[in-house]
Amino acid sequence: MKLEDIMNFLEKKYNPELAEKWDNSGLIIGRKGSNVSAVIICLDITDDVIEQAIAARAELIISHHPLIFSEIKRITNDTVLGEKILKLAENKIAVYSIHTNADSAAHGLSDYILEKLSLGGKKSVWLKNESDPESGLGRILELKKEDNVYNISKAVKEKLNLKNIRIAGNENKRVKRIAVLTGAGGSMIPEIDNTVDLYITGDLKHHETLDALEAGLTLIDIGHYESENIFSELIKKDLEEFFNGKIIQAKENQVFKII
């Protein structure tokens, strides 16, 4: 199958116009006309993931986080990024990234994490996208009935298969409305109104969390990797509807270890 055909299929669901202006989603490396018989899907394009792609003879890596975010002036093996790009090019491996357009899209990553959590209730779009008000980076979930933070935390750990999460606030607090944002969500705390009782996200910093607590918000930090590693599972399900080649979920590890 042609790489362009795979791109066209994915872009029907994950419209590139949904990507944030600062993002670099789309085809990062490769020729649209190249043939693809095997795809490997990952959160981050690490050297280990590239080695997995080479071993599997995959012609395409689909990642959530773009390999290249900002302008680069030279590509040499003097840098980690340069070495990766050279290795990918030498092995004729294309790179296609679906980042914030996957977060925002209807039935994308934000909806998929709520599906995985299966907390019930009514969901709505939060942080609506300018190009499509039916899409947005986050979701608001209104539970059918109130529950406390402790019970919700237990459900999050169980459904996402997490060993540890961080809670900021009162574990016994009653919760009705929950804001959910995958990845690093601290910068969006000012966008949360006072009707929200609990914020589930990742990568929270000390001072932004302290300010949110003093404003009356309770927070659950499930981690950046931990909130988004279901990306590979989601894209694999999508591709299975269309692509008849080999589809591989990369083996990836948490960046941080708790000891």
From TrEMBL:
Keywords: Metal-binding. The keyword Metal-binding applies. A divalent metal cation 2 binds at H64. Pfam families: DUF34_NIF3. One of its GO terms (cellular component) is cytoplasm. InterPro entries: DUF34/NIF3, DUF34/NIF3_sf. The keyword Metal-binding applies. GO terms for molecular function: metal ion binding. Signal peptide: none annotated. A divalent metal cation 1 binds at H65, D103, H224, E228. This is GTP cyclohydrolase 1 type 2 homolog. It comes from Sebaldella termitidis (strain ATCC 33386 / NCTC 11300).
